[in-house]
Amino acid sequence: MLSTSFRCLLAAVSVVTVVRGSYPGQDAPGLQRDTAPPSQAAAYSFDVNTGFTVQENTASKDATDVEFTLDNGSPYPHPYEYQRIGSDGPLLLQDTHLLEIFGSFARERIPERVVHARGAGAHGYFEVTNADFAKNYTIMDMLSENGLKTPITARFSTVGGESGSADEARDPRGFAVKFRTRKGILDLVMNNTPVFFIRDSAKFPHFIHTQKRHPANHLRDKDMFWDYLGSNPESLYQVMRLFSDLGTPYGFRHMDAWTGHTYRWVKGDGSWSYVRLHAQSHQGVRNFTNAEASTIAGTNPDFATQDLYESIQNGTFPGWTLFAQVLSPDAAQTFKYNVLDLTKDWGVDDVTPVEIGRFYLTQNPQNYFAEIEQAAFSPANMVEGWAPSADPVLQARLFSYPDAHRYRLGVNNKQIPVNAPITPVANFERDGRMNVNGNQGSRPNYMSTTDKIKLAPRPYVDETHQQWTGGAVASLSSVTEIDFDWPRRFWNSLSEQDQQNLISNVVGHLGAAPTYSIRQRMASIFNHANSTLGKAIADGVGVTVQTFKFPDGPTWLNTTETPVGSTLDF
Questions:
Q1: Gap between the Cα atoms of 453 and 334, Å rounded
Q2: Which of 133, 215, 412, 444 is least enclosed by beta carbons within 10 angstroms?
Q3: E strands within 397-483?
Q4: What is the pLDDT of residue 469?
Q5: What stretches in the chain show pLDDT beneath 50?
């Protein structure tokens, strides 16, 4: 503890310091204070966005209108030039130009998408054609008036192949559309098929692994491919669509698209309806046969990309009509299929589709990487009046898609021009890598009571949306007899030639799987759907048919129970 006399001394020194303005070391070198009067410095400010604006404007200029520079904007005499000692000496570390170009070159590639890596895209617009129908079910602003046009970006893709793979491979096609609405970004992340291979979200990584490369030899493995599909028979309808000629569409323009998932349209009073959307090609559905697709993939692996680009370049703008299928919650209770099941279609004879609008692609990208490779689509990008259902796969995608973009493009990926909303963004998310649009300025980065942010009125009352009962359960669907309804419907809808093509395509692929039990189980699953189909495939791949029996019952149970039939032979 300080003594009384020392505390008095400290007090005296403090008084002297305040009166005389002195302090220890005030005259030490390097501590001189600037005593220049403020009037000697002219008022000056600079817009820190100037450089960004200049570079954005420069990007649109022709090469003949710009001068070669380094990344810092400093002119440089020649791009091939480098520094060395003499005519045969080593290079110099001080050659910042050489270091810069190799450092940049080594970092040109960003992580490719785990799925949907191979793709192409373009820009255009969506136009409302039936606002009266849409307004009966939703308050979505983009559907509120006939003739309203919304700018869009669309990206088409294969699912399993790498970025450099052939775009005419047998594979489902992604068909994603970004709507830049007056109320924010809406993304429809669709496929060229109304269903998918799974309805349990945790199965997705397992399924994708089997469609890619074997961990040991890095080759595509037909045992892996068919082992998963045969042990998860709810995938059969999608498998049959994939191995029909629908699995090799004629480019990207000649195919339809579906949301697949069930979403919800919401009205201003909080009432809602289930909805699925379907985009129908104005160019008509056209497919390659397996032989034609194999030839195209070998001679022009960029066929679909080239076909889309050249059609727009030539002024032949592809278009699609967007239809909606609507079910009330009451109707969903008695509907033939579980509306949350991604493996079940809503046929046109089940739920009548109604046109709501049309969209066209009219503008090719000026730079593929900037406008298509960096385009980030996510079902989590929603607007008022459009909401998710409790579909388990959709619920998982609401996280996985934006999380993939945060990994691949960075946390500020919505600042990339192709992803940026055309409405103002104001929230409390700040900083992070590549924050380039002002970081929301000097506004508070928390919910301040002295500088209050405006709050939009609540569009509808949340508690009228969906009601659930029950406790948390470990959920996994069961394979039941209803899972073979759509495979049978699809088989019966095919012409005789299309049926033969389906059989031939399956035999050619499944027949190359080396393991007998895998071939036998898959042929037996086909046989359960249709004996003619199953026997032809079994004969083609050299196996005998087993008999399966599946129960009737619900797809999901409301108690924790391990479904015996969820994964066959496991």
A1: 46
A2: 215
A3: none
A4: 65
A5: 2, 6, 9-10, 12-23
Which of 204, 181, 123 shows the shortest CA–CA distance to 418? 123
The CA angle 283-285-291, to the nearest 5 degrees, is 120
pLDDT at site 4:
60
Q: Output the pLDDT for position 464.
A: 60
Question: What does the longest C-alpha to C-alpha distance in the chain come to?
Answer: 110
Q: pLDDT tens digits, residue range 283-301?
A: 999 999 999 999 999 999 9
Could you tell me where the DSSP H helices lie in 301-457?
A: 303-313, 329-334, 368, 392-408
Residue-level pLDDT at 6: 46
Residue 419 and residue 375 in contact, taking contact as beta carbons nearer than 8 Å: yes
The C-alpha angle with vertex 478 and arms to 473 and 484, in degrees rounded to 5, equals 150
d(CA 318, CA 531): 40
User: Tokens 């308050």 map to which residue?
Assistant: 139
In tens, the pLDDT along 504-531 reads 999 999 999 999 999 999 999 999 999 9
Q: Tokens standing for 344? A: 């079940």
* Per annotation, catalytic residue among 49, 57, 72, 116: 116
191 is catalytic: yes
116 is catalytic: yes
State the burial class of residue 405 (Cβ atoms within 10 Å of its Cβ: 0-12, 13-18, 19+): buried
From 191, 287, 290, 412, active-site residue? 191
Tokens of 396: 């998982």
Condensed to tens digits (0 to 9), the pLDDT of residues 208-250 reads 999 999 999 999 999 999 999 999 999 999 999 999 999 999 9
Gap between the Cα atoms of 170 and 156, Å rounded = 14
Rounded Cα distance between 409 and 418, Å, is: 12
Q: Using CA atoms, how far apart are residues 25 and 203, in angstroms rounded to an integer?
A: 71
